[in-house]
Amino acid sequence: MMGGFKWADPQSRAAFAIAEPGYPFIAAAGFVTLVFAFLELTVPALLGLGMTFFCCWFFRDPDRPTPDEANAVISPADGRIVCVRPLESCEFVEGRCLNIGIFMNIFNVHVNRIPFKGTIGSIRYDPGRFYPADKQRAWKLNEHNAVALRAENGHEIAVVQVAGLIARRIICTVSQNQQVTAGQRFGMICFGSRVDLYLPENTEPSVRTGDKVKAGQSVMGYLK
Q: Which CATH class is domain 72-222?
């Protein structure tokens, strides 16, 4: 059933909100730019200024209203759908499941959001390799952080943050047993990466490979 929209997080008062993990990168780029400017090194200073603006843009964190629909699974990431496939088994949920993979390039917003209302079960970080995040082997072999979620209706869902070729920092801000809601911010991955959803096998997907989605806004499917 179609519903309205809700705000999962308090709205920012800033005209251009920036995610907190971006502050050190912006500060470092800005400092280097100032050094070049004081030394009257025009070209390096302009390059540094460009990098500062890029960091500000990359770590943007826009407020987004989340669809308030019964049983709707919300996208945890911005990006392009790289797979929608049934799995006989995986290490993140028990039994058969539906796997939906989202690839984030450097031009996407990288803040990750909770896909469904419930309680955080376990959080497991595993170091791994750094294959390109849009490749199928990345979901299994790359460094990743798996967040298990038990929905209010008893369904088990896993959302897995996967590092990419360049991404070397996975940030997760939720904790075990925490109550969360769909669309709520829970972390980010820096500089190109991937997020995978593992849903109950009878989930009705509403996206296909190649579709573009937005975290906190796009509906990935519906739990039955």
A: mainly beta
